Amino acid sequence: MSTDPAAVAKKKPARGSASTPATGKRSERKQRTREHLLDAALSLMEAGRGFSSLSLREITREAGVAPAAFYRHFSDLDELGLALVEACGLTLRRLLREVRRQELPPTQMLRSSVVTYKDYVKDNHRYFRFAAGARGGGSPSIRKAIRIEEAHFANEMAQDMRDLNMLPHLSMDMLQVMCGLVVTTMMNAASDILDLPAGNAQAEKEMTETFVMQLRLVFLGARSWLSS
Amino acid sequence: MSTDPAAVAKKKPARGSASTPATGKRSERKQRTREHLLDAALSLMEAGRGFSSLSLREITREAGVAPAAFYRHFSDLDELGLALVEACGLTLRRLLREVRRQELPPTQMLRSSVVTYKDYVKDNHRYFRFAAGARGGGSPSIRKAIRIEEAHFANEMAQDMRDLNMLPHLSMDMLQVMCGLVVTTMMNAASDILDLPAGNAQAEKEMTETFVMQLRLVFLGARSWLSS
DNA sequence: TATTTAGGTATACAACTGTTCACTAAAATA
DNA sequence: TATTTTAGTGAACAGTTGTATACCTAAATA
Questions:
Q1: Directed axis angle between helix B172-194 and helix B201-223, to 10°?
Q2: Chain B residues whose C-beta sits inside 8 Å of any chain A C-beta
Q3: Global confidence as pTM
């Protein structure tokens, strides 16, 4: 997650107050096995299984840890799921930063964004696999968390477009509605991308093209949108 | 499924050939408990659980049948899932017929279609719950089946629009791309509709409005689309 | 240094899982 | 009517599940 030792949570700030140099090895190890658990869950889903079909014992087994150790980190499988949602949120925000940094040659900007996105999904396929799966299927609390994360993402995207002065004739509300649609479409496309047959470059190109056209439709609609 | 006795599959066509009047009570009963099994699965998912978290024994218990009886109908939970996908396909096609029959007052047609859809999702919430959940989460084979069903639906929709001479400047390919986007958006909306807090008319109205605007965006984009 | 804290292990338990098998009884066939 | 088929049963199986318990040991604290 973070390589900054200062980011490690500490329950008691230590009585000597300020400048406790670093809490040292205990919480480090804890954090590490926690990540092993999260990683294990993601690995088990790589074959295409949904999160809700995983069992606690499977996960601890994959993580190389005794079943009971699980409870030192999460009280529940659901809680682990929520942690995964949070990690996905970070991943998504990183994507946004990546696209933002790309500066726009406005002609091909949409297509190149799609290509960036496609590669990004492949690089982070474990997170997207989880998100795409749990979005509709997970427990209600996980579903809700994912939806909140998506809304967050859509809002950031809308704010970005506002700052870049794109589609300035749209109200902020309308911009958010549009970005919501884009996010939905992106998530759905992620699911398609992940299920692409491995070596089939033809199918991949086709899918990309469809995706580009769909986004183009949305942007075109936004451009000719009138008033509120 | 079908009330037509002639639709019942028969392995040996009977040697007396033609006009076997009706195979009678045995296959009727079989069909009935088969539907009990499908129903049981849908019922268990009503609380929000995903299909992949159901167990064979749970389903037979809910259906009021011994566990071993399951194998007389499906070899697998996966196979039952595929049967559910097929049932969903029928449901979707029924929806299309319903909307088609509505005849279009083209001004408010989009909004009224959305309302129709919303009610339809609520009426058939069990099927949509399953579809929305298994679309990303289920086993690979179920996911694939759902995707095929969605594509079918999108294509029928495109053909319908062609027949009604809507957006005549679009190529058939482009129409299909657009309908694909609409179907995706609809499916996502279904998930939102199902998770609506029960009595909240305000939230419902808001969601409907957002949904309408998103579709309007797509249609607007389609109207101003140029060439291939 | 002595004491406390807490991440992790091993073991045990009752509950549940998917699947098999021999069986019944009623319907379909000959 | 006699025979065969077959949807459904009930008991048994080996595995797996989630959770509780007592315990160990290294790090953190006093």
A1: 170
A2: 48-53, 132-140, 143-144, 147, 174, 177-178, 180-181, 184-185, 188, 191-192, 195, 210, 213-214, 216-225
A3: 0.89
